[in-house]
Amino acid sequence: MKINTVAIWFAFILAFLNVGCKDKSGEKVNQAEIAASETPYFNWKGATVYFLLTDRFNNGDPSNDVNFDRTKETGVLRGFQGGDLKGVTQKIKEGYFNDLGVNAIWMTPIMEQIHEGVDEGTGFTYPFHGYWMKDWTALDPNFGTKEDLSELVSAAHDRGIRVLLDAVINHTGPVTDSDPAWPEEWVRQDPTCTYETYESIVYCTLVDNLPDMRTENNNDVSLPPSLVEKWKKEGRYEAEMAELDAFFVKTGFPKAPRFYIMKWLSDYIEEYGIDGYRVDTARNTEINVWEEFRKVCDQSFANWKMNHPDEVLDDNHFYMVGECYGYSIDTGIYFDVGSEHVNYFNNSFNALINFDLKTTKDKTLESVFRRYDSIIQNEPEVFGTLSYLNSHDDVNSYDTIRSKPYESALRLLLAPGGAQIYYGDETARKLNITGAQGDATLRSVMNWESLKTDTLTQRILTHWQKIGTFRANHFSIGAGKHQILTEEPFTFSRVLNDKNYKDQVVMAIGVPKGSKSIVVGSVFSDGTTLKDAYSNTSGIVKDGMVSLDSPFDIVLLEQVN
Prior knowledge:
This protein folds into three domains: 1-39, no CATH class; 47-174 and 256-479, Alpha-Beta Barrel (TIM Barrel); 481-559, Golgi alpha-mannosidase II (Immunoglobulin-like), CATH 2.60.40.1180. With 561 residues, it is an alpha/beta fold. The protein contains 16 helices and 24 strands. It has helices spanning 5-17, 31-37, 54-57, 85-94, 96-99, 146-158, 199-202, 225-233, 237-251, 257-272, 287-307, 365-378, 405-413, 448-453, 455-473, 476-479; strands at residues 48-52, 104-107, 111-113, 118-119, 124-125, 133-139, 162-167, 187-188, 212-213, 276-279, 319-322, 334-337, 340-343, 351-354, 385-388, 418-422, 481-486, 490-498, 501-509, 514-519, 529-532, 537-540, 545-550, 554-559. Helix 10 packs parallel to helix 11 (287-307). The chain starts with a helix and ends with a strand. It is globular, with a radius of gyration of 24 Å.
């Protein structure tokens, strides 16, 4: 039985509150044992995170497709397409994510965006992607309402799925006629980053007309007049100010720009119980900002857990994964930001996004798995990674023409460390859209229609579901120790011994179709019944091997309890 130890502690409190409870036979019910046994083990180091663009995933409410008169003609795939929170919730309730083995969903920012758009040289663009902030305290109506967010988080938690939002502290949205620049004490509008030194990475704008937040400013500043005017029109100025005053009194922070935003972002934790933040442009902001943000998020998460004991999923702390552009797992806990050697795992991030895996198309699976394992197993406990093959802003992704959808699932989902599925990886959604320029081609609408009618798309999804479910059932795959058993066919094990959670699996790739014998070595003892989760066939270990008969060249072995 896989038991979450701190869940026992939490359940003990419940048991204390229910002392004397009896079942129908009159015997006392041990609430601690019941709660602990029903709490599945979860480890962020081996998580499967599904990353989706909120606007491009699924349209659950067509009535919110147009807001703020966002009706201008845009470049190809540079306008809103209708995806929203209700659409994500719909797929959660249908079981789409559970069937894929996903245990966390990361959505692009859903806060209110600038109302206008800009011409980026590739066609007029609206802020469908969510990274052009106007008001951190409100949701953009194109994405939905706060009631929609609450329902989404509850639906996800009910199914054992965690929810990550996207934190943007580095910048506001571009300046337009409808979206005035924030005051100079809040943002800088030049110079543009050149990425040659630490200063030219941190104290600059990412691109032209993307005001950079003065996160180094420790002085008190007043709210931007445009935000004050907006809140007054919406009838919530007094309430927002009272909350801000209470926050600054409680924390003792100066009323500096970064702390306002931290307060606004932490509200989503304390109010909705989100489980983590993916932090945007982490290397473009001082490391102390993320250490401060960690403290604020941890406190808010602890407050939410205390106030919602029946909704707590596990004993894990709040999760933070950072995007430091160009970071590779080989770098370990340090990353060079210009002239600075920065440790992003020192009281800040649980993991950094790993930009390396998508570059390994010419490397064997064993060489990649062995290298990743050697790094992960030798870094401090605080170290973690989240690898991807394709993403929303990487035009040099692993498989932009979708020629390797089956191999991609093996490379991503069986690699040591955390795995990030980009929406549509599992259905070979097209990433080369005619007429789309730059990163827009990576952001097409999810191919639900193809999934309904095309048998090839359905087979690809089934393949991803089998491997994803196996990964979700066995955290040893992402968080355990890797060991090769045979080179031909490629057979390897993963073993994890973490407190009261012990798990081991054997996987083989490129085995003969039909009858086959798989080496399991000492991972499973003779006489153990094993099931191949890929074909749903079983066999008994004899002389360190198990014999199976299946029509597939992939075997995923787990012990039958």
